[in-house]
Amino acid sequence: MADDVTAIKTLVQKHTDLKKEIAKVIIGQEKVIDQILLSVFSGGHSLLIGVPGLAKTLMVNTIAQALGLDFKRIQFTPDLMPSDILGSEILDETRHFKFIKGPIFANIILADEINRTPPKTQAALLEAMQERAVTVAGHHYKLELPYFVLATQNPIEQEGTYPLPEAQLDRFMFAIELQYPTFEEEVQVVKSTTGDVTKKVNALFTAQEIVDYQHLIRRIPVADNVIEYAVRMVGKTRPQSDAIPDLVKEYVDWGAGPRASQNLILAAKANAAVNGKFSPDIEDVKAVAKGILRHRMIKNYKAEAEGVGIEAIIESLF
């Protein structure tokens, strides 16, 4: 127990140093970076939703460097095949089949514009995201831990895209919306990216340290009333439940499943830990709720027609 207390104090300092390291390259977007890091320390995956040019790729690459992890980027296109992601078997010079690993064999995978590829190729990620393993030609291959998928999606240009099915959306712990930078932040971005100086990002973690911190997060105790609050909140997202808010009753077709409750508690634990707390409270659950519930609630046509945002619906759950 004493070791865990010391480890949390160390994590707080390393988390602060990590954010400073990332800020060398990425200006602003602090809430986005916070949620990605919570996802990393909880062992989850994240979906980044934002228009082109908001440095999504650069952000993921910088975080991978600062975490000291192997990083691969996969550009999802309509002609991408599952074998282009997973790898394939080839016949070598000795006439034996040899497996050539695909880009999915890395610690951090950036699935760029994941909704531009057909469902068959999107589904190639499912086993890797859930089981941390892939099956090719009947052979099972374990992926190295830690393992994260960070996918990006453009919310505006939907022509020629393949929306992710709900089962795959549910695999993402967080759906994170990126906003335009403020005027001051954009001035800083232009200053720092139009010169000839390249900032070097130092690795502050090892892969094993991150795995150890993930186990530490899971060992953090949670009071029953906090767990009950999280489960009750997720229950309120389901239109068929009792005592739901009016906004849910009127504007939601389908609510979140049990995985949302699990992710709320895991993310709340991580949020408490990086802020130096030894157990999460209800405020930690509220702090992570929007990112975890945003992509798990399906609005109806009336909500779309009246311009009711998912943020307002989630606020009503509090």
Please explain how this structure is put together.
The chain is α/β, with parallel strands linked by helices. It has two domains: 2-208, Rossmann fold, CATH 3.40.50; 223-317, Helicase, Ruva Protein, domain 3, CATH 1.10.8. The protein contains 15 helices and eleven strands. The protein has helices at 2-23, 30-42, 56-67, 82-86, 119-122, 124-131, 166-169, 183-193, 207-219, 224-235, 246-251, 258-274, 282-293, 301-306, 310-317, and strands at residues 46-49, 71-75, 87-91, 97-101, 108-112, 133-136, 139-142, 148-153, 174-177, 252-254, 298-299. Helix 2 packs across helix 12 (258-274). The relative contact order is 0.15.
Q: Which runs of at least 5 residues are low in confidence (pLDDT < 50)? A: none
The fraction of residues assigned to DSSP E strands is: 5-15%
Fourth-level CATH superfamily of the largest domain: P-loop containing nucleotide triphosphate hydrolases
Q: Mind telling me which CATH architecture of the largest domain this is?
A: 3-Layer(aba) Sandwich
Tertiary shape? globular
Question: What percentage of residues falls in helices of 4 or more residues?
Answer: 40-55%
CATH class of the largest domain: Alpha Beta
The tally of structural domains comes to: 2
- The overall average pLDDT, rounded, is 84
Biggest sheet layout: 5 strands, parallel
- Please list the strands of the largest sheet in the order they lie side by side: 2-5-8-1-9
Overall structural class, as computed from helix and strand content, comes to alpha/beta
Multimeric state: single chain
Instruction: Let me know the number of strands.
Output: 11
**Through-space gap between termini:** 33 Å
Note the total helix count: 15
SSE pattern, N- to C-terminal: HHEHEHEEEHHEEEHEHHHHEHHEHH
Radius of gyration over all CA atoms, rounded: 20 Å
CATH third-tier fold name of the largest domain: Rossmann fold
